[in-house]
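Example 3.2
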Amino acid sequence: MRALGRFLCSSLLSMFTLAAHAAGGPFGIDHLVPYDNSGIWKRSYQKDLAAGTALVVLGGALWEGGDSKLGDTFWRSLDSVALASGTAQVMKFAFSRERPSQTSDPNQFFTGHGNQSFPSGEVAEIAGAVTPFMFAYGPDHPAVYALALLPAYDMVARVKVHGHWQSDVLVGAGLGVGFGWYASRREHPLILSMLPGGFMVGIHKKF
């Protein structure tokens, strides 16, 4: 795990290293990196991670219900994922930025329908999913902070396959962490509070 963490950190650093002749975007850090769709960076693995994250969060919430700490955290994670992903999608439509696979110019915003690079919805989803668990369990169980490796991996991978610019994944991560913090601070999980009371009791308790 430590080796993976060091590898991802070095990859993130290299990803954000400025190429002075090509850097641009809203933070002045966006530039093309060498395309890499092999090994752990394969696009199929990224899709599996995003789909698996959504399934674990939704399945965990329904399985546990909301009357335990774990269940409550799953529901807060679901809130965070929904809010972060929804906001990211609205921003994609609003900013209509071209992806690195479409252009070498990171300043191509507001270019019309079909261009949805900014921000990264996958990174927002994964960061939103893990943040409530880090808030709930991290102080007593520091190993839980290792969950941060999941969005960190996706940040690097999305840039390597030219799916996103560096600022796309940074803002996506910010959305996930921000909504994860909001969901963790609420008195009750948002989605759970809007559902019938039966959802407080997890599936495993009903059977």
